[in-house]
What does this fold into?
Amino acid sequence: MSLIQCPYCKSGNVKQTASGNSNSNYFEQLQRCISPAQMALLGARLAKKAGLSPAAGAAVGVVIGGVLVVVSQYCFEAYYNQADQYLCLGCRQHFAWAKP
Ligand SMILES: [Zn+2]
It folds into this structure.
């Protein structure tokens, strides 16, 4: 019956896990990936290479990290707000399927 296919293995054996505004998990993960501390560290490292002071690099890193989070949040919401979340029972991958 279902026309929904796993984008990874093309299996139709999928289970809906959530629908609509269930993005909180994604953002938690994202913010863990792009934490200010990590961006500060990255910025400081880049600043060292560019010959700037680590403090300046850290500040730049935090700003860039914040922009990245906001931009990806916007892109994600634009697409995934009308999507349902599915779990493929074949390959255990999670994916989102936009409603028609
Ligand atoms: Zn699959």
Summary: The pocket of zinc ion is lined by residues 6, 8-9, 11, 88, 90-91, 93 (CB under 6 Å). The chain has one domain: 22-98. The beta strands are 14-19, 83-88, 94-98.
